[in-house]
Amino acid sequence: MVNNIVVLGAGVSGLTTAYLLSQDPANKITVLAKHMPGDYDIEYASPWAGANYMPVGKEGSAHQKWERNTWPALKEITEKYPEAGIHFRGTLIYNRKKDQESDTGKWFSELTQPNPWYKDVVPDFKGVPSDQLPAGVDNAQEFTSVCINTAVYLPWLVGQCVKNGAVFKRAIFKHIADAANAHHSGQKADVVINCTGLSSKTLGGVLDEKMHPARGQIVVVRNDPGPMMSTSGTDDGEDEALYIMTRAAGGGTILGGSYQKHNWDALPDMNLANRIMKRCIEVCPSLVKEGQGIEGLDIIRHGVGLRPLREGGTRIEKDKVDGVAVVHNYGHGGFGYQASFGCAYDAVALVNEVLQNKSRAKL
Ligand code: FAD
Where are the transmembrane segments (predicted)? Predict the structure, then answer.
């Protein structure tokens, strides 16, 4: 029995789902997308991400399960496939109670609390003794996490899928059901997996009004401060953030950031860029030489990406649109990488339910 499957979208969600499905030789997969790895576009979130694993899902939620289930896969890829562009990195988290009610503080509330669920998931978790905390920091913790060079990892995923027989094609669809007619076999696809991220807001047959952007601005520099770090907030604004991460395999260091809900602006705001660089140096002076300010940063580029945030959470669900079986996997906000495998496992389980129903119908 052959299964004709279309994956619509080639960001981390589409590629991870296609990668898992491609491991079954019965699945004949076409990945269709407007943007592919190598492109940088405001409609394509994945290349802009740091990306690292800093869990934010609330204890007991599906989000927590997805993040918990993703760590073993990222760890295995990091250990087994250095060419995937992921490395282990020490991580330091600072929490200030005064950030609790800000947008950034709420986003990071699970990450920054002193006794989080993920302490049993990531290696080397330990609290920083209170006499070693910097002024203004209420609690802090350290652990080992991963940092993903998205410019290497996304093409690596494409390579794995191609090796397993998947076919990649550029295409733009106005309606999700049309994607079923673009399978490389020429036959109609048995199922379409919707991994279109923020575009699910405007894609015909989906039109999800719960989708909105959380704008993230970054500065990529050549400086390498060592460990990754993040704080619960900043004194520069409710929707500004502070994080530092050096990507694997020469990917540079990402200085972030912002979490600006409903802001669609694709251009970097240079005032915000200055604030990002200044506060990163304040909290991590080893970014530059002693006595230097932002002039000590060697800038590669400024960037803006739109996190595909969904009110009510990520949508992983079966659907039927104009007679076409659809499985949705979109709305991953600022956690698309750190929840990628957990979400894709659930999406694949739903695809398998659709395919089993198809087989039963044919008997
Ligand atoms: P996208 O990457 O946006 O991909 C959507 C795909 O669908 C594209 O291929 C697009 O071309 C295609 N598509 C859309 N509409 C159509 C159409 N009509 N026809 C054809 N193709 C279509 N996450 C983490 O886990 N860790 C981090 O450290 C992290 N840092 C981040 C930092 C920044 C600055 C930003 C912006 C995001 C960050 N994220 C992070 C979040 C992460 O990047 C996103 O959650 C993730 O990239 C979403 O991936 P996606 O595949 O769902 O969507």
Answer: none
CA distance 264 to 180: 30
Query: Ligand 1: distance of its center to the CA of 106 in Å?
Result: 21
Residue nearest to ligand 1 atom 19, measured at CA: 172
* pLDDT, mean of residues 89-99: 96
The pTM of this model reads 0.98
Index of the ligand 1 atom closest to the CA of residue 331: 52
Residue nearest ligand 1's atom 37 by CA: 49
Specify the residue with its C-alpha closest to ligand 1, atom 42: 336
CA of 8 to the centre of ligand 1 (A): 12
Strands 86-95 and 228-231: parallel
Model confidence over 314-357: pLDDT tens digits?
Answer: 999 999 999 999 999 999 999 999 999 999 999 999 999 999 98
What is the spatial distance between Cα 162 and Cα 173, in angstroms, rounded to a whole number?
Answer: 22
In sequence order, the 6+-apart residues with CB closer than 8 A to the CB of 168 are: 10, 30, 31, 33, 36, 158, 161, 162
Residues lining ligand 1, CB < 6 A?
8-14, 33-35, 44-46, 48-52, 171-173, 195-199, 203, 216, 218, 257, 305, 307-308, 330, 332-338
Quick one: tokens of 307?
């996190």
Q: How far is Cα 314 from Cα 316, in angstroms, rounded to an integer?
A: 6
- How many other β-carbons are positioned within 10 Å of the β-carbon of residue 224? 11
Measured in Å, residue 345 CA sits from the centre of ligand 1 at 18
Cα separation, 182 vs 347, in Å, equals 21
Q: Closest ligand 1 atom, CA of 52? A: 28
Question: What are the boundaries of each domain within the chain?
Answer: 3-358
> CA-CA-CA-CA torsion for 326, 352, 26, 30, nearest 10 degrees?
20
CATH number of the domain at 3-358, out of 3.20.20.140, 3.40.50.300, 3.30.9.10, 3.10.20.440? 3.30.9.10
Going by C-alpha positions, the residue among 167, 72, 170, 173 that lies closest to residue 122 is 72
